[in-house]
Amino acid sequence: MSDTLRIAQAAGISVIIDTFACWFDADIEAAIIAAAPRTALVQVSDYVFGDRGLPCRAVPGDGNSGLDRRIPAIAAAGYSGW
């Protein structure tokens, strides 16, 4: 479990999953499951490999960040919001 999630639990607040910021995490599926009960919002954007120009965010589906696996994992973990 991440420090962010531990702090959110201790404070009684929610978290946001940002698919751009976490696409390269090796244990992202476990992190999604752990965060699901506290997730208030999912921010979706993609990343094109090699893009170095900030902000580096791509339209969902235009990149290579594995949204085809991440979005179903988020839904399977119980997130039902927007």
Largest sheet: 2 strands, parallel
User: In sequence order, what are the helices and strands, one letter per element?
Assistant: HEHHEH
Instruction: Give the neighbour order of strands across the main sheet.
Output: 1-2
Rg from alpha-carbon coordinates: 13 Å
Mean pLDDT: 88
Helix proportion of residues, in percent?
A: 25-40%
Question: End-to-end distance, in Å?
Answer: 24 Å
Strand segment count: 2
Q: What's the domain count?
A: 1
What features would you describe in this structure?
Helix content is 38%, strand content 11%. The protein has 82 residues and is α+β, with helices and mostly antiparallel strands. The chain has one domain (3-76). A two-stranded parallel ribbon has the order 1-2. Helix 3 runs parallel beside helix 4. It is globular and about 35 Å long. The mean pLDDT is 88.
Provide a short characterization of the protein structure.
This protein has 82 residues and is of the alpha+beta class. It has four helices and two strands. The protein has helices at residues 3-11, 19-22, 28-35, 67-76, and strands at 15-18, 39-43.
List the helices and strands and how they pair.
Blueprint: H1 3-11, E1 15-18, H2 19-22, H3 28-35, E2 39-43, H4 67-76
Parallel strand pairs: 1-2
